[in-house]
Amino acid sequence: MTLYKEQQKVRTAMNATFSGLTEDNFLAQRILAQSKGESQMKKKWSAALIFAIAALMLGAVALAAVGWSSLRQLLPRTLPIQEEKFAADAISIPISQTHNSNLITFGTVELYWAKDGLFITVPVKEADAKYVVCGSHDIVDDFSSWPPTHIWSNNTQIPADEWRTGREILEVAPQSGNWSASLRSEEGDLAVILGIDSPDNRKLPEGMLLTLRFIVHNWQTNEKEYVSLNLELPPMTMQQELLPR
Amino acid sequence: METVKGPDSLEKEMERMVITYQHDLLRLCFAYLCDEELAKDALQETFLKAFRSLSGFQRDCSEKTWLTRIAINTCKDIRRSAWFRYIAREITLDMLPEPAAPVQQIDASITLAVLSLPPKLKEAALLCWYQEMSYTEAAQTLNISPQAVSNRMKRARKKLRQILEGSGFHDAL
Lengths: 245, 173
Description:
heterodimer; A: 245 residues; alpha+beta; six-stranded antiparallel beta sheet; five-stranded mixed beta sheet; 22% helix; 32% strand; B: 173 residues; mainly alpha; Rna Polymerase Sigma Factor, Chain: A; Arc Repressor Mutant, subunit A; 69% helix; globular
């Protein structure tokens, strides 16, 4: 059978089977409206605030008093979070962290366990000065070429070649968790945030081993490193919901 | 002199693309994810990403190839999520949306057979058969060589025949 006949058979079959799928007559308007809303949002808010708002909408907060240290600097003071309500033991620092990367190093991981999930902040740095790390959320999507041509930096798109100043870009892409974000401090330090919506609540009070996986992708050489970050967690206390819905 | 498109013309272009490609891309996303709500989310995300990148689109490939590439990458991101992995993904006919008209058994069998192919073969099959792309266009979309597409299609054909013969449909494809 020729390719053309195969195409006709499969297309006819699948179109008949999928005939119940209905298009959205207002899709274009929604996309344009959403895009306008996003560009206005980018002018007003930092990426850190967007993440914090998303975390609030999940009904939990990814920050707590002890673990606020690195994230605190990333968030503007206008956030309506009542710091005094955070318990001192809300954050659990892993007993030990081990990993297998040659390209990046990890700072001290901070975790927060609330009713809606486990929130993990992973500071990341390049292991050698010839590299510079970026988060997947820093990339300006451009599917017409590889590597991507622009990076989000301070809510501005700048050419990646200009941003990297001769260094090789290592994109740190989380492969664990239900959602992720990336944040930068004013000093330019990168933190990758992961959320796990349904952690194993039986194990967390007793302590557990948690492995977070990342792919580190060198844009200039196209090489990939598959990284596991192993955390030995002490027993953790689940926090009550600290903010009203 | 390079012509720079203003925001109004970009919006009009996006509206045209949505009207032209929504039908096929929705079905492609559904075939990838086998979930109507996820497919609609993926479709919206695809056009949103396309609109954000539209001013930089160099037209070194066709619009359809470009949009399809974005759609597949978007579907792959959804598939990678831990939540997606926890859901049982065995494909059955009752998972598909109620068709607008009765479907012949052979058509349902071909559809289920394509949807149950291993991911890389399914990807190639959806592009070459369902989206009617050439091997070159499919290769551009997937960022692999045309030879690799050809190899995947050979394996897809073989696998599909095995599945369809098992369902009693000989020479269906």
